[in-house]
Amino acid sequence: MSYQIELRHLKYFKVLAEELKFRLAAEKLFISQPGLTRQIQQMEEIFKVPLFDRTKRKVELTTAGIYLKEEVDFIFNHLDTIKKHLENIGAGKETELRIGFLGSAAQNVIPELILRLNKDYPGIQTLLEEMPNKLQLEFIEKDKLDLGFVRLPRVPNGIAQHRVFQDSFSLVLPENHPINTSNFQNIRQLSAESFIFFSSEDSPQYYDLIMGICEDKGFRPKVFHKSVSALTIFKLVEQGLGVAIVPTSLQHGYNLRIKFIELKDIPQRTELSVIWKESNRNPALKNVISLLIGSA
């Protein structure tokens, strides 16, 4: 008769190899002693080698049995590891999370999130990519991103949004500009300057917000350049090609010849939100959202 090794054979062998008594092993396995004997005999027929030395007084492993026991122990330990990994994946504790973000989020929100993930869910690996608002939204909708950190007033149906950070605005000037914190009064002092804005196509509401800061002080700014990149804006300011208004948190992390003056006398604030697709099936997402909403 032809047999094939099945997982149950290995389990029966493992228990018998540990107990070295057919009666005790059969009781532990909830099968009859003759049934256990038949299973071991099938294994020996398949492997064509005796696995146990049997006498009336004792049962011992053969050399082949000793080798097989080590391998079977490894197999079952590995299966336990696989089971734990699958349970963790199912619970969202071990997987990859794809995150898009604006540059301003990299100053505090992203580092704090990664630190908390490493502490609470060390099995979650993050793939981070800086990109503009519209591209993040597009990638979220196409399931190319799991999370996005954006400055958008609203998002389409099916996309969830939650505010995680509110920021003030700051004026960005070349390092040698005559206006500084001691003689700055309000933004109207810069009405004759060229301004460098974030792109209105990427975030019209954000563009309008900055325009409103200037218009509230009685002038409409001359927009010389637009960009989706904070670094590009800062480089242009550094070269004396204009001034800019940006979220205050962006003043950190750049080693450029520019200076920042926080606009403390204005009501406008900018909000950073996290967005995600409500139908996203990444099991890690619920854990990350819980961390973000709980700390917001």
TrEMBL record:
PROSITE patterns: HTH_LYSR
Protein name: LysR family transcriptional regulator
Gene3D superfamilies: Periplasmic binding protein-like II, Winged helix-like DNA-binding domain superfamily/Winged helix DNA-binding domain
Species this chain originates from: Pedobacter frigoris
Pfam families for the chain: HTH_1 (PF00126), LysR_substrate (PF03466)
Database matches in InterPro entries: LysR_HTH_N, LysR_subst-bd, WH-like_DNA-bd_sf, WH_DNA-bd_sf
Keyword Transcription in record: yes
GO MF, one annotated term: DNA-binding transcription factor activity
Family: Belongs to the LysR transcriptional regulatory family.
Keyword RNA-binding: no
Domain HTH lysR-type, chain residue ranges per copy: 5-62
GO CC, alphabetical: protein-DNA complex
Key words of the record: DNA-binding, Transcription, Transcription regulation
